[in-house]
Amino acid sequence: QPLLAGRAVLFVSRSFYWTDYSLPEWLGLEQYGFCSWDTIHNPFSRRREMRRFKQSAADVQEDDCATDGAKRQAPAASVITGMQILERANR
What we know:
The chain is of the alpha+beta class.
């Protein structure tokens, strides 16, 4: 079992490559998000991003409790689609 499995993880970097968006799948993560270093550096943006990330992690945990142990079929709110990955990679 991976070290980060079952935890909410926020990936922070100055820039992300298209392969970085595959990390959650490779690490077996269900609760994750991506954030730029510039966003974390700005105090207002950091608070907003952390609030959003905590809320999405809480929503995922709430959904897990509601399913009574059944495996969830819907992806987490922070899952990035293949098209979004390509758009970010081509910036």
